[in-house]
Design a protein that fits this description.
By secondary structure, this protein is an all-alpha fold. Helix content is 52%, strand content 0%. The chain has helices at 14-20, 24-33, 47-53, 57-65, 80-86, 90-98, 114-120, 124-132, 148-155, 158-197. The model has no long low-confidence stretch (mean pLDDT 90).
Length: 217
């Protein structure tokens, strides 16, 4: 069984080598054998991180199918999403954003996020997709105090910056819409609670008495 083959001197396992070589069939076989999908080499890389480093999209998808850990980071703090964003792997970034990968994780050296890394390689599509997927662009800062928004304004040419700002503005608009909807909902709850606390009195009904003979008024 492959699970019994020891890792090499760098801690690289047969699964990691299959990920490097984009061998999805071998990955499926080893997953069925019960190998540890999230084992780490000497540098803290998992098989999924190796797949991202080598642009091995089919291998990465097979690892995800078998529930490899998207949140795993290597010794430098790099996640598979960060590496995919840096390497322009749009299909993987798209899928991992949908699967709620940790978009705001930061690395250890630069305190950079996947969004900052995408901006660093001028990949507007990935940068916009990360913003749409909830990545922070105006609060988190790298070690030099730069937010993703600041970096984008410096790095992107005018046309690309316009696309990026469109994604940012849509996030702002969505946040405002959610805030308004939440306020309306809270007001409705408060109104309902007030109605229960102060019930409306039932209208008084007139009482008619039968007159006796000779009675007036």
């Amino acid at each position: 069984m492959t699970a019994l083959i020891p890792p090499d001197d760098d801690g690289v396992t047969p699964l990691m080598r299959a990920a490097q070589e984009n061998d999805s069939s071998a990955i499926a076989r080893m997953a069925a054998e019960g190998v540890n999908l999230d084992a780490r080499d000497r540098d803290g890389n998992t098989a999924l991180i190796h797949a991202a480093k080598n642009g091995a999209e089919e291998a990465a998808l097979m690892l995800m199918y078998h529930k490899a850990d998207l949140r795993a980071a290597n010794n430098d703090g790099h996640t598979a999403l960060m590496i995919a964003a840096s390497n322009g792997l749009q299909p993987l970034v798209e899928r991992w954003v949908v699967m709620q990968a940790p978009v705001d994780a930061t690395d250890k050296k630069e305190n950079s996020t996947a969004l900052m890394m995408a901006i660093g390689v001028n990949d507007t599509w990935i940068a916009c997709r990360l913003v749409e997927g909830g990545a922070d662009f105006e609060t988190l800062a790298d070690k030099n105090g730069n937010t993703a928004l600041t970096l984008a304004r410096r790095a992107f040419p005018a046309k690309d910056l316009a696309f990026f700002m469109h994604a940012v503005n849509r996030r702002h608009a969505a946040a405002e819409a959610a805030k308004t909807a939440r306020k309306i909902h809270e007001d409705e709850i408060a109104h309902s609670a007030g109605s229960l606390t102060h019930p409306v009195s039932a209208p008084k009904t007139a009482v008619f008495r039968r007159k006796t003979p000779g009675q007036t008024g």
